[in-house]
Amino acid sequence: MDAILLQIFNGLDKGSAYALIALGLTLIFGTLGVVNFAHGALFMIGAFCSVTLQRLLTLSHETLDPTKLDFLGNPSKIKTPYIVEWFGADAGNTIIDWSVPLAILFAIPIMLAIGYVMERGLIKHFYKRPHADQILVTFGLAIVLQELVKHYYGANPIQTPAPDALSGVMQILPGVVYPAWRVVYFCFSLAIIGGVFAFLQFTTFGMVVRAGMADRETVGLLGIDIDRRFTLMFGIAASVAGLAGVMYGPINAPNYHMGMDFLVLSFVVVVVGGMGSLPGAVLAGFLLGILESFASMREIITLIPGINQIIIYLVAIVILLVRPRGLMGRKGVME
Length: 335
What we know:
Blueprint: H1 2-32, H2 39-57, E1 60-69, E2 75-81, H3 82-87, H4 89-97, H5 99-121, H6 131-153, E3 169-173, E4 176-179, H7 180-202, H8 204-214, H9 216-221, H10 226-248, H11 258-273, H12 278-295, H13 298-303, H14 307-322
Antiparallel strand pairs: 1-2, 3-4
């Protein structure tokens, strides 16, 4: 039973990342009708926002410590972060320790700006083009962003550790312990998903957006600038992907190809859940994460070697054969 519970928690952990990325993808497709293959790159950029803030917070200068001498008897040179010098040792080191959660505030305006520039500068020119054209241009954009990150940050993974207080394990159930940061990530993903749904469901802005997703022309005839609202939704979708990347850094060290690693799986999640269906994207993300987790068990791999690598695609094939529009997709959409 403990092993089963651990696999469920592992699946929810993986499913959190799938659901957040798929949620952003579905927001973009549902509002703009664009198949955005650059969305995985936004996840990667969010992770490197955390890396950038960590580097900014640890900027330091050399000082002489007369209490420590080198082998020649001269005062040793030590590096002191500016933030420690400004705020004191306790406060400064605490800020550095909590750099990953603080990166949320750092990443939100950056991701909003990137989403706005991407939509206004490139995506808007492809609204009426075939989906194949949209896939090609956004995939090309993803490669450009990936190579830029590789150029400036290097090809090796960069560690972004969780705060010391959340770097150990916590007891979830009697006899069941789990990494604390993974629990935090799951709770964070639920908060983001709940926030997006509440925003769309209970705010005037969200109601107009949902109306525009259902009938864009009629909303436009009412005198509402639906294009501007959809542009803002693109920025929000970019922010969701970016925040997912920020908090994922302590689980998987950021690297330049992590966006591509998640992109294909996230598109499978979107298709299984139903193109344009936000609840479907979230449901499929968690379900496929749990399935992948159970398929990774040693007993299953011994019985069916390699099943953990293909289980998501097998499930997608079966569902699309039986229900081409996905689990919760609207009839006629991508069917």
